[in-house]
Amino acid sequence: MCKVFKIGRSSYYEWLDYKPSKRAIDNKMITQEVRMIYFKSKQRYGSPKITAELNEKGIKVSRPRVGRIMKLEGIKSVVNKKYRVCTTDSKHSYHIAPNILNRDFYADAPGKVWLSDITYIKVAKSWLYLTVIMDLYDRKVIGWSMSNGMSAEETTVAAFNMALRNRSFDQGLIFHSDRGVQYACREFTDRLKSKKIIQSMSRKGNCWDNAVMESFFKNLKSETTYGSYESTLIAKRTIFEYIEIWYNRTRKHASLGYKSPEQFGQLNIKSAA
């Protein structure tokens, strides 16, 4: 056989006796896990979140090592870091609430600070409008609405009604948004006042005053490989899956210690018990 393949006897016996190192075996196992997590996330996760997932499974590995494996495998997150869409229509005569939140993006319990924003979703030759309300404490989306129109009833009021069904809140709840007419009009502000909710609004043209919501929409559009949806049905199915199945229940957040909103909420309920 050695003569046929033109290799030396010593090389042949060395190959027979070869045993892969422990690190080589570990790398093979970790590579399989990395690929499984990566494709399970629909190619959304980069090395930090994959590392957190591995550690959660009891596989202790560093982020640089995961990064090297991903590079060797030719896989990387599909998330586009550059994304910015502005939908705010602040050219109106309604009262503008002060910026009470003032970029203090921390809440020590649920039902203390709610954030909200509206974005465009392109569908064929038209648009849908996605309104989202998030609890700052656990970053969970507690209310949302997709509509064909931009009226308050279709956007902010519809999302707010869902939020009220999904989560209770403390007295003195702060509701923060931009200055858009859907948040400033009487149809919406009267509902906040009836619940004794304190309204807060970003400064004019300052997206960083609502940075958490800006980040959410950037991630949504990047992680759903955002473009133009073929139909309203496909768009609504995609957004539903992203918010209710992926984002709230599964997606890990660096700000929550690499836990999903649901995991974070459950862990803190247990620790408080």
Present the secondary structure layout.
Layout: H1 2-5, H2 9-17, H3 22-40, H4 47-56, H5 63-73, E1 113-123, E2 126-135, E3 140-147, H6 156-166, E4 174-177, H7 181-184, H8 186-194, E5 198-201, H9 211-223, H10 232-247, H11 261-272
Helix pairs in contact: 3-4, 3-5, 4-5
Give a description of the structure.
The chain is α/β, with parallel strands linked by helices. It is 43% helix and 14% strand. The protein is built from eleven helices and five strands. The chain has helices spanning 2-5, 9-17, 22-40, 47-56, 63-73, 156-166, 181-184, 186-194, 211-223, 232-247, 261-272, and strands spanning 113-123, 126-135, 140-147, 174-177, 198-201. Helix 3 (22-40) crosses helix 4, helix 3 packs across helix 5 and helix 4 (47-56) crosses helix 5. The longest helix is centred in the N-terminal third of the chain and has 19 residues, at 22-40. The mean pLDDT is 86.
User: What percent strand?
Assistant: 5-15%
Dominant shape: elongated
Tell me the major beta sheet: 5 strands, mixed
Biggest sheet strand line-up: 3-2-1-4-5
Mean pLDDT: 86
Enumerate the spans where pLDDT stays under 50 for 5 or more consecutive residues.
Answer: none
Query: Can you count the beta strands?
Result: 5
What is the element string, with H for helices and E for strands? HHHHHEEEHEHHEHHH
From the N-terminal CA to the C-terminal CA, the straight-line distance is: 70 Å
The radius of gyration computed from the alpha-carbon positions, rounded to a whole number of angstroms, is 24 Å
Helical content stands at 40-55%
Would you tell me the structural class of the helices and strands? alpha/beta
**Number of continuous helical runs:** 11
